Every structure is written in C-alpha cells, then in structure tokens.
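Lab meeting, item 3. Inverse folding demo.
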C-alpha cells in the first residue's frame, strides 16, 4: 500500500504542476493518465461505478467528484480539488489536494485551504491504536469550525485496502471517545471536505458532481493513513 500511495503522490505532484490559468481539467486528466501509465499503475477511479475518468477535478463551489472536461477552463483566482486513486498489485492508494489557480486568491479562500489542510493533519495526529473514529471526526470538526467554516456531512472518509472503499466509514465530525476503536494494521482514507459557507451539498444531473447548496467555495484534502503501533503512517506523502 505504501507503493500505491507513492504512485498517487507522484501523480498529484505532476498534476499540480499542470494547474495554471487557461488549462482545462481535461489537461489535468491527461497529465495524470500519462503519469500513471509511466509508473505502471492502474487508475482506481476510471470505471468505478461507471466513473469516466482517472481524476476527480472539482472547481470552486464543487465539493467532490467533478468530471474532467475540455470545457472546464481554470481561471485566475479559482481553486481546484484534485482527487486521485491508484492500484498497485491489487492494493489501493487514495489522496486529494486542493490547489489555487494563479496568484490572486482572496484571503478567505486561502484561509479555507489552510484550515482544511490543518484539519487533515489534526486528524492524522489522533491516529493510534485505541483512538476512536470519533476522535478523528472531532479533530477535523474542531479545526474547521474554529475558523468559521463547515464540514460536509453527506460524504465521508473510508477504509481502504484491496478495495477502494472498505469499512469503516470515517465522518469528518463526531465526539471524542465515540465509535469504533482503531487497531494496528487498519488503513484509512481520511478526507476532510470543507465549505466556506454552510455544509449542505447537492449532486448535479451528471450523477457525480457534488456542489455546495449556497454556492460557497469548498476544499478537499485526503491522505491514506496506516495505523501502526507507534501511531499514524501516512502512505500518500
């Protein structure tokens, strides 16, 4: 799984370098597909329940599962979340980043990116044998809500291993001490999805793209994290 995680990280690094004003989300998709092929890995998302692409690319008020397209052109001041999964020898890696397009990002949006990334790190810092799923969710929620933002509740993180989505589900909200206890050997995809406005989302007619109901910006960061005897081992760094 560390190998699968490393592939995902290399793909995301390549795609990040492709993000610029004037690029399309299909440009990002093509860069990811080429890099996956170069690394000898299989895309985890393409064909999964009929999803058509290697990446999910979600712009501004799109929360998750945006479909890459030649018609989606990135503009100065946008943000784009890029979610990628890879399969290596039957094992999965999954990670997401949200990237600012250009240099002119407004202060609130920049703070949204920083808070979402910080909430992911706070969640990772709680991971150890005996900690609970509630500890993870509470860690995310505390960081996010302290900044005046909201946690999406309709989508959650998940276990991951020889399948893309495994038990348990991992909400980005909760109460410390509640829920399943973590055990050494578990691997979790922890993925805060955070809205600048209210938490409610809706899915567009394409059946995939989730957007914020109030049109506010949304950010998404994710790592695949193994539970070890000494704490968290991030497999997608």
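The presenter then showed the designed sequence:
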């Amino acid at each position: 799984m560390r190998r699968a995680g490393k592939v995902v990280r290399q793909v995301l690094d390549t795609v990040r370098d492709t993000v610029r004003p004037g690029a399309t989300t299909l440009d990002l998709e093509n860069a990811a597909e080429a890099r996956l092929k170069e690394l000898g890995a299989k895309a985890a998302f393409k064909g999964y329940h009929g999803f058509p692409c290697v990446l999910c690319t979600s712009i501004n008020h799109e929360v998750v599962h945006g479909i890459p397209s030649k018609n989606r052109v990135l503009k100065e001041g946008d943000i784009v979340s890029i979610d990628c999964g890879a399969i290596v020898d039957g094992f999965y890696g999954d990670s997401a980043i949200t990237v600012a397009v250009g240099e002119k990002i407004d202060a609130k949006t920049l703070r949204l990116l920083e808070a979402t990334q910080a909430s992911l790190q706070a969640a990772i810092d709680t991971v150890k044998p005996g900690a609970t799923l509630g500890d993870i969710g509470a860690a995310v929620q505390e960081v996010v809500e302290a900044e005046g933002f909201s946690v999406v509740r309709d989508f959650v993180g998940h276990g991951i291993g020889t399948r893309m989505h495994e038990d348990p589900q991992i909400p980005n909200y909760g109460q410390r001490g509640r829920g399943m206890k973590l055990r050494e050997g578990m691997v979790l995809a922890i993925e805060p999805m955070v809205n600048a406005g209210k938490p409610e989302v809706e899915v567009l007619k394409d059946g995939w793209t989730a957007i914020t109901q109030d049109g506010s910006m949304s950010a998404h960061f994710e790592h695949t994290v193994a539970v070890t005897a000494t704490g968290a081992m991030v497999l997608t760094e």
